[in-house]
Each structure stands twice: as C-alpha cells, then as structure tokens.
C-alpha cells in the first residue's frame, strides 16, 4: 500500500531574543541588610579573656616559696675564710713577753730584735695560728723585781704558782730566762701561760729557747703543725660531744664488776667539761654491759705470765656485734659520741696484756681509735683465784683503781683532741717539762684548742653555706623556707662575730661564736623541708600541666579567631549593602 508522504510545513524561524541589559546588582551571598550582632563574638572573647586572666592564678598556685638568701654575703665569707683549713685567713693576735734575769741590760733592744726575728723565722717555716705577733722584753721595773725574788730552785708547782701571782691577769704568754751557775739547763712550761728556763745559757741560746717555747709550745700546742685535719676533729656538727663511758664484763660467770661512776663524774669530769665549754658542749653518760667478748685472739706468754695481744690485733679488738655501745639518745643525731671502754677480760684470758711494737708491755694497757674513743683493759687482781669461785659476787672497782683508769682516759681524751699525752716536749733547742693541770688542760692548751676550733668551725661554716648557695641557685624550683633564711642569716652574723672576737684576741668568745655559726649552717643545709622534696625544672612543670590546659586553650583561641574572622566578613557585607543603597538613592 502506497503511503503518501507529505512534506512537512516550513518551521518557524526562531525569533532573536532580546539581550538583557547588564546592570550591577549585588547578590544575596554578598550583601547583608542587617548589622552583624556581637553576641557570639562577645561570648567567645569572654571565654578567652577568662583563660588569660586565670593564667596568673594558675602560675601562683604552682609557685615555689623561696626565702631570699644573702648570696653576696656568703661569697664574701668564703673569700675571707679561704679554702684551706691549714692556712685560714683569720687574724689571731698573740702577745709575747720575755723576761731576762741576770743578763746584761745594755743589750735589751738587741735581744728583743733577735727574738722577733727568730719568731718570724719559725712562724714562716711552720703553720701558725697567730698572724699578728708582738714581743716585749722586760729587764727592769716592778715585775722584773718581783720575778727576781722567785725561788726557781724549788719545785715546779711552786714556781708556777708564784709566776701566776706576779704575771696573772693578762693573756700574755711569758717566758722567764734566769741565768744561773748550773750547767744543766732546765726548761719548764707551766699550766698557765708562763714558762721558764734556768741555767747557764748564752744570749743566743736564750733567744732560741724563748722563740721555740713561744711558737712550738704556746702557739702550736706542742705539735709540729698548728692544726689538725678536719676529719679528726672530735666535735659534732652541732658543737656537742657525748662522752660515753662503758664498763664491759666479758664473762659474768667468772666475775662481775661495777663502778661508782657518779663520784668520778663530780670530781674528775666536771672540771674538764667546764674548761672545754667554749670549744664544745659536752655531756656524759655511762653504762655497764655483760657478755661482751672481744673479737681478736690472744696467746699465752710464759715469760710474762699472761695472755698477749699486740697492736696488730687492735683493729679487731672492738666487737661491734656484741658491744652494744651506741645506746645514747644522741646516736641518731649530729653530735659526736666518744666511747671510752673499760674491758674486764674473762678468766680464760686473764691477765690480758697489750704488747707494743718494740716488744714492751704497755704501762697503761690501753689504746685509742681516732674519732671513736679509747679502750683500757683492766685485769682483776688474783685472776686464777677468783675464777675458781662457783658463784661470783658483784665487786666494785676501788676508787684508787678507778682514778688511775680515768687518768689514762684523760690522756686518751687529750690525744683525741690532738694534744700530747706525755709530760715532755722535745724541741730542737732542748727538752721542756710540761706541768699537768687539774682541769686536764692547761690554759695555753685551751687557747690553742679555741684558736684551732675557731678556724675549723669557720671554714666548715663557709663551706656549708657555699654549698647551700650553689645548690639553691642551681635549682630554681627549690623550696626555701623562711626558717632556712633565718638560720643562714644568724650563721653569717655568728661567723662575723667570731672573726671580730678573733681579731681582738678573745679566743673563748670566738670559739663559741664559730661553733654557733657552724651549727646553724649545718641546720640550714640539712633542713627537712629541702631534704624530702623532689625538685624539677620549669620545663618539667610545663610538661605536667600542658596536657590538661593546652588542648582546651587551643580550642578557645581558635574559636575566638574564627569568630573574629566571621564578624569581619559579615560586617563588610553590611557595609557593602549600605554603600549600594546610598549609591542608588
């Protein structure tokens, strides 16, 4: 079937569209017809400001209290005292007086000059405590006349008391040289501050003896050096010494001994404690122990009829496991405890004798241990007879034996303080007899101890305060309590007072002040508030607190910045709309 196709009608040509007129009109996204509000911005900024103002309170809450310390004064004290205890920068004036009897008076000025030169020579070659020397030669006047009337041929005790009656009252070291007819030259150092030389001596020999007695005896205490090392000073850091006297019964099944210690304390120890008061605060305690065998071995000697232990056994004599000596209340503190032990051996080793390195038996039958104390072995009389008793009874050591024991203890105590325990000094110009004092220490020895302990205490004070100063400055987060600041202040004041007293020649006062200065410095350095706290730097503090506050702070800061940016954009839109409205109108 044929399909008739019709031609489609002609399409209507498209009419051209009119072109729109391009006029600039702001879009809805770039205009803002209302002024942007400040509510969101104000809230965000208020949170940020609150964080900023809270930061000082946070810093204050973690702030470390630090009392101000006088660092400059501490450095000044350290520079004044010096770093060497053997050469301290202290000024101790020492006044000497030489009295010549039966010499040519026309050579007085020459003798005085020779004595001064010899003193200068001796003090320059050895360590001396006296930095200021003054010499006076007396060959006339009332004192010279009174001394000329003294009988130097009598006993030494009477001569010493006579010189004390003539020369007493002044702290001047005096040496009397009496030229006599005797070939034997006798030199004696009294228990006060006086000495004398009697015999046929020339002027040159007299000058040498006078200078040696001044420097070697009066100044240096009869020692070659004027000072003892600090580690051998038997005084605690708090200026106290505890004398602990112990009576040890090795085996109470053989015999039991007791003592009347109170009588010895009142008669013998009280004067010693009073004399050493400026140097140390001394307290005394006693105890009796049982079942206290020694640790070392001894052997029987048929020749001496006793058990022998030598000096090689001394380090093992003290039995620290069985001898419970440290029962004092001061054992845990900073006080120095000196142990003095009377050892009663058992019947199996009685009599027990100490053999010296030269093979002789010790007369005292005792020994000392530096910085620890001393031991005396006391053998009971009739060792074999008493040991046969089945029921030993308690015996009391007689007063005579106890007095002998404490005389030995006194010699050991002097040795622990660095002084001589014998009664002679052997010098280059001769031998000198040293008179013993009832107080255990002569006055010139007490002066020596006061000067020496003043130097050591001030050096220890300066060292401790210097260490504290460096420690505090190296740890900015270290807690410094107000009490520590006061202790440092008082320590410096006491140290300065000790230096002034030393320069004036007040030895006892300088020793007391220096002891206080050292004790306060030690108290400040070992204060509990700085010993029990762990210190950390500011960086560590920041690392601890930043995980808590840094994330929140960053979010608040970023939110404030974002809100400020949004407000600026919206404000520009509003200003643009206002400008367009103004232009069209």
UniProtKB/TrEMBL annotation:
Residues 1-33 are annotated as: Disordered. The chain crosses the membrane at residues 41-59. It comes from the Eukaryota. It is found in: Endoplasmic reticulum membrane. The keyword Cell cycle does not apply. One of its GO terms (cellular component) is GPI-anchor transamidase complex. Its main location: endoplasmic reticulum. It holds the Pfam family PIG-S. The keyword Hydrolase does not apply. Residues 8-19 have a biased composition (Pro residues). Belongs to the PIGS family. This is GPI transamidase component PIG-S. The gene is LOC115960456.
């Amino acid at each position: 079937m044929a399909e008739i196709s019709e031609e489609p009608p002609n399409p209507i040509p498209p009419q051209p569209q009119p072109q729109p007129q391009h006029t600039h009109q702001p879009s809805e996204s770039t205009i803002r017809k209302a002024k942007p509000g400040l509510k969101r911005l104000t809230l965000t900024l208020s949170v940020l400001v609150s964080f900023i103002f809270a930061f000082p309170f946070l810093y204050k809450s973690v702030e470390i209290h630090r009392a101000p310390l006088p660092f400059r004064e501490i450095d000044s004290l350290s520079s004044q005292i010096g770093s060497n205890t053997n050469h301290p920068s202290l000024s101790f004036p020492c006044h000497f007086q030489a009295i010549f009897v039966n010499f040519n008076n026309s050579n007085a000025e020459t003798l005085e000059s020779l004595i001064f030169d010899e003193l200068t020579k001796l003090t320059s070659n050895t360590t001396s405590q006296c930095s200021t020397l003054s010499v006076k030669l007396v060959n006339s006047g009332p004192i010279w006349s009174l001394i000329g009337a003294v009988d130097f041929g009598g006993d030494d005790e009477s001569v010493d008391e006579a010189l004390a009656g003539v020369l007493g009252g002044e702290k001047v070291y005096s040496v009397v040289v009496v030229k006599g007819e005797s070939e034997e030259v006798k030199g004696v150092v009294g228990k006060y501050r006086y000495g004398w030389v009697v015999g046929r001596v020339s002027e040159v020999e007299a000058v040498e003896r006078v200078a040696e007695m001044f420097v070697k005896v009066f100044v240096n205490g009869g020692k070659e050096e004027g000072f003892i090392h600090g580690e051998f000073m038997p005084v605690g850091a708090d200026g106290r010494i505890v004398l602990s006297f112990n009576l040890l019964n090795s085996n109470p099944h053989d015999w039991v001994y007791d003592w009347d210690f109170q009588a010895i304390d009142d008669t013998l120890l009280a004067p010693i404690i009073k004399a050493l008061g400026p140097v140390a605060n001394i307290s005394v305690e006693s105890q009796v122990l049982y079942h206290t065998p020694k640790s070392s071995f001894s052997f029987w000697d048929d020749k001496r009829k006793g058990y022998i232990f030598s000096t090689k056994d001394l380090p093992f004599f003290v039995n620290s496991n069985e001898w419970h000596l440290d029962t004092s209340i001061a054992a845990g503190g900073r006080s120095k405890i000196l142990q003095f032990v009377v050892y009663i051996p058992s019947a199996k080793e009685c009599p027990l004798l100490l053999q010296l390195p030269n093979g002789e038996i010790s007369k005292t039958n005792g020994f000392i241990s530096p910085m620890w104390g001393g031991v005396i072995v006391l053998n009971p009389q009739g060792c074999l007879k008493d040991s046969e008793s089945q029921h030993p009874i308690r015996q009391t050591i007689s007063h005579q034996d106890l007095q002998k024991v404490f005389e030995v203890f006194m010699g050991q105590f002097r040795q622990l303080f660095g002084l001589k325990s014998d009664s002679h000094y052997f010098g280059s110009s001769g031998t000198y007899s040293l008179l013993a004092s009832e107080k255990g220490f002569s006055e010139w020895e007490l002066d020596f101890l006061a000067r020496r302990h003043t130097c050591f205490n001030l050096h220890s004070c300066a060292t401790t305060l210097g260490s504290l100063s460096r420690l505090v400055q190296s740890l900015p987060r270290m807690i410094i309590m107000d009490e520590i600041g006061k202790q440092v202040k008082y320590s410096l004041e006491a140290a300065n007072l000790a230096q002034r007293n030393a320069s004036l020649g007040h030895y006892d006062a300088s020793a007391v002040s220096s002891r206080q200065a050292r004790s306060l410095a030690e108290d400040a350095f070992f204060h509990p508030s700085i010993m029990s706290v762990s210190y950390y730097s500011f960086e560590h503090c920041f690392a601890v607190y930043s995980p808590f506050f840094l994330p929140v702070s960053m979010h608040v800061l970023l939110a404030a910045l974002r809100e400020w940016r949004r407000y600026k954009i919206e404000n520009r839109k509003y200003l643009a709309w206002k400008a367009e409205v103004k232009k069209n109108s």
